[in-house]
Amino acid sequence: MALLLAVLIWIVAVGLAYPFIVDTWPLPDTITEHARQVDAQYRLTLWVTGIIFLLAQLALGYAVFKFGRNRPGAAAHVRGNERWEILWTTAATVLFVGLTFMGYTVWAEARFTESANRAPDEDRTIVEVVGQQFVWNMRYPGADGKFGPTKIELVDDALGNPLGVDRDHPDGKDDIVVPRMAVPVNRQVELQLKSKDVLHNYFVPELRIKLDTVPGITGTLRFTPDKIGTYEIVCSELCGLGHYKMRSFLEVKTQEDYDQWLVAQAEFLEQ
Amino acid sequence: MATEVAEHLEVHRHPEPTNFWTKYIFSIDHKVIGIQYIILAIVAVFVGMALSLLVRLRLVWPDKPIEILGTLFPVGAPEGVMTPEFYLAMLTMHGTMMVFMVLTTAPQGGFGNYILPIQIGAADMAFPTLNMLSFWTTFVSFVTLCAAFFVQGGAPIAGWTAYPPLSALDEATIGGYGQDLWLLSIAFFCIGSLLGALNFIVTTLQLRAKGLTMMRLPLTVWTWFVTAILGLLAFGVLLSAGVLLLMDRLGGTSFFIPGGLLVNDIPIDHTGGSPILWQHLFWFFGHPEVYIAILPGMGVTSHILATFARKPVFGYKAMVYAVVAIGALGFVVWGHHMFVSGMSPYSGFVFSVLTMCIGVPSAIKTFNWIGTLWGGKIRFTTPMLYSIGFVSLFVTGGISGIFLGQPSVDLFFHDTYFVVAHFHLIMGVAAIFGMFAGVAFWFPKFFGRMMSEGMGKVHFWLTFLGVYAIFGPMHYLGVIAHPRRYAETTSVDYLGAAGANEIHYFVTMAAMITVTVQCLFLINVVWSLFKGKRVTSDNPWEATTLEWVTATPPAHDNFEGRIPTVNHGPYEFSVPGAPRDYVMQCNAPDAAPARKSGE
Question: Which of A79, B19, B107, B172 has the smallest C-beta neighbourhood within 10 Å, fewest atoms?
Answer without folding.
Answer: B19
